[in-house]
Amino acid sequence: MDKKNIKTESLLLNKKALFDYELIRQFEASMELLWHEVKSIKAWHINLKWSFITIREWTLFVQKFHVSPYTMLPNKTIVDPLRERKLFLHKSDILFLDQKLKEKWFTLIPVEVYLKWNLIKMRIALAKWKKLYEKKQVMKEREIDKQAKIDASKFLR
To answer: With contact defined as beta carbons under 8 Å apart, do 87 and 31 qualify?
Structure first.
């Protein structure tokens, strides 16, 4: 199987995390989901905004990952949309992440939820907080690029 032919479809990108954190290294993890969660995720009823990842007993868990109850589910009150979900990753990667998390300033965040060959995967990243001046610099660069595009379009008219 060629790597060029891998079918992937992005379901959700955590833009807040990309702005607030500097991504050091990324990993691909599978999730343990219930049937109605799979249907909700494929229908794009998810939110990654404030979610984070913890390690307990050499296992990864994603916290505050909101999956809305499936619309056709008869009893929506039993479903906890914020329950913690288990992530599957190689043991060597978990050991590496555990060592890095013991160091200062490192955290684990979910970056993206996507379909890969019809399987739901989560891209997680080892990240560091960006300083305020780094965020301001990024915003200033975006503003300059935006102004340059506006000027170029006015010039071409």
So the answer is: yes
Pairing of strands 8-13, 119-129: unpaired
Q: Would you state the pLDDT for residue 9? A: 82
Bridge partner residues of 13 (DSSP): 112
Instruction: Please give the pLDDT value at position 12.
Output: 87
Work out whether strand 66-67 and strand 106-116 pair parallel, antiparallel, or are unpaired.
Answer: unpaired
Out of 3.20.20.70, 1.10.10.10, 3.30.160.250, 2.40.280.10, select the CATH number for domain 7-130.
2.40.280.10
Q: Which residues contact 19 (CB under 8 A, 6 or more apart)?
A: 130, 135, 138
Please state whether 69 falls in left (phi above 0), alpha (psi between -120 and 50) or beta. beta
Looking at residue 155, its pLDDT comes to 80
Taking alpha carbons only, the member of 43, 49, 78 closest to residue 66 is 49
Nearest of 44, 10, 6, 14 to residue 109 by alpha carbon: 14
15-48 burial code (b ≥16 CB/10 A, e <16): eebbeebeeeeebebebeeeebbebbbeeebbeb
